[in-house]
């Protein structure tokens, strides 16, 4: 199966909490191997482990996804986005956006405004909440 979607952190949290229904339905409609997360997203999720999400919830989620390592191609695109948008502070969001662009996949997030800036650089964004 070909990876089609990279989930942002908020979508992963919705999946672990099993709500809203729209996210669960869209996730269930995909085939195994079509959905993944960036290692950057995993790092963000680990910040909330045992605070917002249990280890069991996170392990269960991880078993359903492909985790993609942030690699040299993603780093190159991150650098290009940083040069293209120097007035915007670098962030995990920019790294996740760069990773999605480098993989040629759609980023799924409920925080579309955080990523709108990068659509002109090739980022494709979907919101499964609305």
- Largest beta sheet: what is the strand line-up? 3-2-1-4-5
User: What does the average pLDDT come to?
Assistant: 93
Main beta sheet strand tally, sense and closure: 5 strands, parallel
User: Residue ranges: pLDDT <50 for 5 or more in a row?
Assistant: none
What is the domain tally? 1
Q: How many distinct helices?
A: 7
CATH architecture descriptor text: 3-Layer(aba) Sandwich
Principal-axes shape call:
globular
* Spatial separation of the terminal alpha carbons: 26 Å
The CATH homologous superfamily is called 5'-nuclease
CATH class: Alpha Beta
Let me know the number of strands: 5
- Cα Rg: 14 Å
Protein name: Type II toxin-antitoxin system VapC family toxin
Organism: Acidithiobacillus montserratensis
